[in-house]
Amino acid sequence: MSDVDLSGKVCMVTGATSGIGQAAAVALASAGAELVLVARSRERAERAVREIRDASGNDRIDVLLGDLSVQTDIRRVAAEFLDSGRPLHVLLNNAGVFMLQREETVDGLETTFAVNHLGYFLLTKLLLDRLLESAPARIVNVASGAHAYSGGRLDFDDLQSRGGYAAMKVYAKSKLANILFTRELARRVEGKGVTVNCLHPGMVGSNLATNNGFLGRLAMTLVRPFARSNEKGAETAVYLCVSDDVAEATGGYYYNCKQAWPKSFAQNDDDAARLWQESERLCSGSAAPAT
Fold first, then answer.
1. What are 182-235's pLDDT values in tens digits?
2. What does the pLDDT read at residue 215?
């Protein structure tokens, strides 16, 4: 990163108030990028901005407040950014949740799927024209090796997990959706100056799952001594955002800054195309027309 100059580049990061999102934001800011952080909590966002400024020496950091489980918030965040007239060179979709029990969002959608997949999908769709106008540009989606525990292909008859809820399996399926989304979007924008890649950050000692009360906090406390640091977990995301090595690469899945291969069911292009159609339907027509 020391030889990377992102001066004049605008990078948007979701989930940047803690964990690998904040670590990635520090790295991008340290390289001179203008940052736009999407955050749910004003208090946490203000704290993150102070910490990122202190760590990077870069004060070109803005915040857009919105809850990525709420589609009206996602549309408002996108509209506020588009109204600013700024280009967008990097979109790092990182925000995610792990829910021990099934809950639904205000839109009536299962929360894990709504945040971890539809949040990526809708925000990206709404910003896609600006990314295309700003080309060369990059979209980076934080997925996970946890997709291997999804039990196989997506069940398109029960994307909302109404037929039964097992927390790890539901989380794994949302991460499978990230990979399928990456493949389909890369296909749709191929040759248009925008690359799309996803990654497995490794097991990171972040704040994921701590929203689940005592049990969630206890689990992460037990895992943390054996987990990667947030900075290490962010390395592959930052690599995909900035490295010349992957300037032309698209549609890939990466781990430890190298291309890796997800499970075969995560490479099913028919499922990727169908997931796109179902995601548009679940977003109630709020996404932009298909590219």
1. 999 999 999 999 999 999 999 865 455 444 444 444 444 444 454 579 999 999
2. 46
Catalytic residue list contains 171:
yes
Rounded to whole angstroms, the Cα distance separating 240 from 224 reads 25
Contact between 123 and 39 under an 8 Å Cβ cutoff? The reply is no
Short-list 73, 84, 190, 91, CA closest to 140:
91
| Alpha helices per DSSP H over 31-94 | 42-56, 71-83
CA dihedral of residues 149, 155, 158, 159 (deg, nearest 10): 70
Reading phi first (left if > 0) and then psi (alpha if -120 to 50, else beta), residue 152 is in left
Which domains are present in the chain?
10-281 (3.40.50.720)
* CA–CA gap between residue 279 and residue 281 (Å, rounded): 5
Cβ partners under 8 Å of residue 84, min gap 6: none
As beta bridge partners, residue 13 has 37, 92
Mean pLDDT of 94-119: 97
pLDDT digits (tens, 9 = 90+) for 12-40: 999 999 999 999 999 999 999 999 999 99
270: how many CB neighbours lie within 10 A of its CB? 9
C-alpha to C-alpha distance for 6 and 90, rounded to whole angstroms:
10
From the candidates 120, 149, 165, 171, give the one annotated as an active-site residue: 171
